[in-house]
Amino acid sequence: MNAPGLMMGQVALAALVHVAFAFAVGSSLFERWLASDGALARSAPSHAAWHRARSSLLAAAFALVLAEAGWLLYEAASMTGGGVEHGLAALPDVIGTTHVGHAWCLAFGGAAWLLMAALLYRGGRFGLAMFWLGALASAAGTATIGHAADAGVPSLGWAMQVVHIVATAVWGGVVLAGGLVVLPALDTSTTRIALIRLADRISSVSLIAFSVVLLSGLIGAQRGLGGSFGALRASAWGHVLTLKLALVLLALVLGGLNRISALPRLRRSASTLDAHTFRNVLHLEALVMIAIFVAASVLGLTPPGHAGS
Prior knowledge:
mainly alpha
């Protein structure tokens, strides 16, 4: 396989890691929220939504483990300069002797722990703690692989990247799982109250998570640009960052439309039209979120702006 093919494979698998991680985090939140509202009972109107959240959590956790494994295979192939078969042969050396391999072990171990927690525990504080332990380990491993670890581990830049990854997963996760999986199951008049409660939670959690994403992202961008805005125009990293920021702004506008316009109308009327409006805007935001994760994956494989300017 040629270098462009390997690069595309790495980007695709890195994006899948980000999307699957966010889906798992978001689905776990919806499962918890719906369970606390009584959706565990089969007779509950919102039980189908809880079941979707539960199924989405398991599928996303399993996809995360597979994506992590596939990413390392492509990374090993890129290191050897050969095809995937050469990368497969080099896996023991990559895992045992390289920084990337050691960091990947932490990310993969976190993903596997997250999957185990999702499979074994249904609700309860202990199960929730086990899930978030795996999520934090996965985020720490991912941050250790990236540019944020150039200054060493642990370091302030690395810690901020861990926070950025987790906050992005919370923001992206409630949007992805809500817009694509859970809210479509709440499309009847009998589930309208549950939908409004979830819409309130989505809006509030998204706003808090985005604030953390913005702060940690600005710190990471300043580090990547080396303190010079010239690198924003003169480097490939700066160009990809600009695209990512434009996509984030679009997602922010869509989220703002729901928070400022659609959600207040939905609270007042509880009508089918307003419910569909909120859900459709959230669906669009979810599609933009996927594009953001793809841009973030490209950014992670591109030399920082201060190095390429």
